[in-house]
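Q: Got a minute? One more chain.
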Amino acid sequence: MRSIRSSFLAWLLVFSSVLLGSRPAGAAGVFSASEERPAPREPLPSMPLDRALDPLTYRLGPGDQLGLSAGGISDFNVNLTVSPEGTIRVPNLGVRRVAGQTLESTRRMIAADLQKFFTRGPVEVVLLRPRSYKVVVAGDLDRPGTVVLAGPGRVYDAISLAGGLRGSPRRNIVLKRGGREMLLDLVAFQRLGDISQNPMLEDGDVLVVRAPLGVVRIYGGVNYPGEYEYREGESLGRLVEVAGGFEPSADTSRIRLLRFRGPESSDTLTLGATSVAGAMTLRDGDRVFISQDAGFHASSQVQISGQVRRPGIYPIETGRSRLSEILALAGGLAPDADSERVALLRPTENPPQDTAYVSYLLRGQDLKGFEREYAKMRSRTRAQMSLQVRDALRSPGSSADPVLVDGDILLVPRQATSILVQGEVVRPGLVPFQAGGDLSVYVRAAGGYTGAADKGSLWVTLGTTRQMVPACDAPPLRAGDVVWVPAKEHGNFWNTFKDVLLVAAQLSTLYLVVHDATK
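A: Always. Here it is, folded:
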């Protein structure tokens, strides 16, 4: 009977408040209008959080805003703000201390006290807006000082508000809380997603970004080799983990650790995988070298470009695949391919240049101007295999069909339709090929000789072999050949003077010998 009377009284109060244009006063004076203002019609904007708050772990503090609803009546909502003293004033219940309590425990306490007034519906307490946090951030930062986090934030958020880190100190960040210290590593958080290295902050936390304590280096078969800030007590295994772990090609059976014993002296230790996984503690200055298997997932390939039906990169079997097989994979020569000028470049076997000979050439001793420039060009070219493609296609597997190696580049040019005339002509450039035409035909087509041309020293570069031969020894010109017209060499006065003196000296010596012999 008492329950029925209480429910009837609560409903009567609600009905009366609607008629009078006021909010419910509650049973026996619950929720007086002077204590709390009603909640707004529109919900308060929520703060951006990186995850949902856990009511079992989130602890309330000054500034948290709570929403209270009861009886299942939509108009019966109240906002409660935790005061600077850590309390809230619940209508009809008075002041309740909630600072330090979890959201869930506060919810149960208020619901238990109010449920006797609202028997037909639940009593709900929700967190509408979390409070702001003040955190002190000190150390190697752009803007050290106190930062305010709008809602629960993490270490990285506070450091970002302080302007971010300067340089590389990211692995020795100290979080001070209630007399305790925690050493954090933001590299581990960023690389590995280790959330424990970027914890949630609380009011009064202090972050100190320490200066680097030293460096360690790791090279070779890890995903992020390089220099890392030294952390006291860190193991080799942890460094490998922070460096992204081993690459698949890493040889973990022989890991070398260089450790200094003084300013200059050092020892080199050879470690195995068990040492990495174990507790091998690093020291400042240590350098770790992890070998890699050069043959791991190695594959041989060649590149074909130019006038084939399917140019591109093709895999080969080292020591077995031949030119004819790869041309077949590429669809064969295109109709406009020039098989006589196909070039097979083998960069891996480029013979080293005789540096003394090249220096001799570049100084121009005994070379004319155009010969010197040609020598420069040839000294920079890659090794080119000698081959006859048509013979290779006619006799697959024969000596004319070369075995390909990794890195070979096959260039199949289009059939040439012109001859290039270079040097001392009026209009150097390409001249249309004319069957049976001699040098004079192409020189005239290029505008004729200039006044500086050395007409008696013409050269031809054969398009098929790139060989440079004197014009008098060249075979009949073919499309793709290059005609060189050099300039006259101007005499050097001092060289001529020296030659005259030398001849005079020789004649004087001969005269003296003859004179002495005929006395």
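A: Confidence is low (pLDDT under 50) at residues 1-47, 509-519.
Q: Perfect, thanks.
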